[in-house]
Amino acid sequence: MDLAPSTETLALRDDVRAWLRTNLPWEYGTGLPPRHADLDSEVAFLRRWQGELARAGWVGVTWPTAYGGRGLGPAANFVVQEELARARAPELVGRIGVNLAGPTLLAHGTDAQKARWLPRILGAEELWCQLFSEPDAGSDLASVRTAARREGTGYVLTGTKVWTSYAQFADWGLCLARSEPDAPKHKGLSCFAVDMRAPGVTVRPLVQATGEAEFNEVVLDEVFVEDVRRIGEAGAGWRVANSTLSHERGVNPRQLVIHMQHLEELLRLAAGGGAFDDPRLGRRLAQAYVEVRLFQLHNWRSLSRLEKGLEPGPEGSILKLYWSEMSQRLHALALDVLGPAAPLWHDAHDNPGDGSWQRSWLYYQAASIFAGTNEIQRNVVGERVLGLPREPAATAGGSSGPGTVKESGRAST
Ligand SMILES: Cc1cc2nc3c(=O)[nH]c(=O)nc-3n(C[C@H](O)[C@H](O)[C@H](O)COP(=O)(O)OP(=O)(O)OC[C@H]3O[C@@H](n4cnc5c(N)ncnc54)[C@H](O)[C@@H]3O)c2cc1C
Q1: Full-prediction pTM beyond 0.85?
Q2: Cα dist. 374→53, 116, 366, 370 in Å?
């Protein structure tokens, strides 16, 4: 593992930092993004912000220049993400397009599809959502039942998707559907770009524990999708979906820096409230410090792999497993440090952080579920990294028991 930054990487870090110092809409290093009364105004603000970032070339750093990227490598992207997070820049509102749909189109889209969709992803002119999960297809993603019936110059899609983040704001949905019902489970799927405003698409927000409704149920009722909006060959949806899912793992510079910031704030909170005088809390604070540092080293190891042109591989599951559990321990500790203020919410008296720790605690409970649950990550690590025996195969025609999972994208990528 070579950790020495190249001259180009150092120069890029200086560039992005200088740009942020001038253009960040809050004070660099100390300020925070504005709080918004509702998700609509937050999304509108974030779209403008992503537009500015994209115009300066800080979105899609690894994308080809022909589609608005910089054509740089993973280390350059890591540096830009680190600097954005260090400046407390919020997550990209168009992250599903930038991190999932875009790379999928780059790998499987036609030239016309790339030209149509890619440039509008970077500046958040169009937002995407990921229409994969269904009520009976999450870990076992190959069980999707949404039907794609061939008709005329396209397909008619009918089914229900769930947990679709930002569907209420999305222009396009990357959808996995069953186009060949008689083909074997993994072979009868196709991938489509669904116009989220087409007749027959209904989006119903689902309120989460934080009180916000970031994700949704999406009902597709006889939604017509033209052939030209099928991504990849008919029946090749499983391969396309797997390449989407492979982008949900690997290095995670953003979570790294977010957790470095959380740690910094937690140590400040602990010092201010006297938590270090309690040896039980003191030991856990030291442990939190060590864990964030280990997460950094895991990231660097994966990054070094990517820089050598290797895939993240099943080892990517170790990183996801590690950071999600680390995050939940760090947040549990934060609430213990808050002590009697832990159950309070915004606008309460004597509540350090004004509810931000409590919100963050609730949010990160989902970290062990999204992008593949931790049980699934453990299966991947057990079977594909440690070489332990595989789960038993599903019985023919059986329900989606644990055995089906080893064949699924969320389990196997
Ligand atoms: C905040 C958030 C945002 C999300 N956004 C999106 C999105 O935008 N688009 C999208 O398509 N999906 C999204 N999801 C869905 C997410 O991908 C699924 O929730 C996840 O893959 C798990 O699927 P499931 O909920 O159906 O649980 P299930 O697969 O039903 O699992 C239920 C439980 O059984 C366990 N389990 C299942 N199989 C096995 C096995 N073989 N061995 C051991 N244990 C097993 C699981 O670990 C879990 O604990 C989101 C989820 C969250 C929490």
Answers
A1: yes
A2: 33, 36, 11, 9
